[in-house]
């Protein structure tokens, strides 16, 4: 469940508690570190989404991951094999590459760089024989 895109829910612990009890998702994806912590308290799997726009965002993302302790991270955009490799070497959790991916070769590059998976919006890329 991509928690950041659900309209009408706040970014508070009570929203996570409500979602966990009423909808019973396996986990959440969010950019908000306080929601990662709350979801972990509810026993949900957590994926920390990080937008890597520059070197300081990369550094801050690593700090957030270390602080929050998510089960995995999703980095956006996912078209950065070098950065994917560096993150998988630095952080001991699975990495998902997402954002701006349009071609099978871009998926393969992300996987070769160390990503566990990719998240893509184009249904044509959902069932590739990899």
Explain this structure.
- With 130 residues, the chain is an alpha/beta fold.
- Helices cover 40% and strands 18% of the residues.
- It contains 5 helices and 5 strands.
- The chain has helices spanning 13-22, 33-41, 55-68, 81-90, 104-112, and strands at residues 27-30, 45-51, 72-76, 95-98, 117-119.
- The chain has a 5-stranded parallel β-sheet.
- Strand 2, helix 3 and strand 3 form a beta-alpha-beta unit.
- Helix 2 runs parallel beside helix 3 (55-68).
- The chain is globular, with a radius of gyration of 15 Å.
- The chain starts with 12 loop residues before the first helix and ends in an 11-residue tail after the last strand.
Task: Based on the model shown, name its key terms.
alpha/beta; 40% helix; 5-stranded parallel beta sheet; 130 residues; 5 helices; globular
Q: How is this fold's topology laid out?
A:
Elements: H1 13-22, E1 27-30, H2 33-41, E2 45-51, H3 55-68, E3 72-76, H4 81-90, E4 95-98, H5 104-112, E5 117-119
Parallel strand pairs: 1-2, 2-3, 3-4, 4-5
Helix pairs in contact: 1-2, 2-3
The gist of it:
This protein is an alpha/beta fold and 130 residues long. The protein is built from five helices and five strands, in the order H-E-H-E-H-E-H-E-H-E.
Form type: globular
Task: Tell me the number of strands.
Answer: 5
**Beta-strand proportion:** 15-25%
Could you tell me how far the N terminus lies from the C terminus, measured between alpha carbons in angstroms?
Answer: 25 Å
Number of helices: 5
Structural class: alpha/beta
Please state the CA-atom Rg, rounded to the nearest Å. Answer: 15 Å
Largest sheet: 5 strands, parallel
Helix content: 40-55%
> What topology, given as strand order, has the largest sheet?
1-2-3-4-5
SSE string, helix = H, strand = E? Answer: HEHEHEHEHE
Low confidence ranges: none
Q: Would you tell me the overall average pLDDT?
A: 93
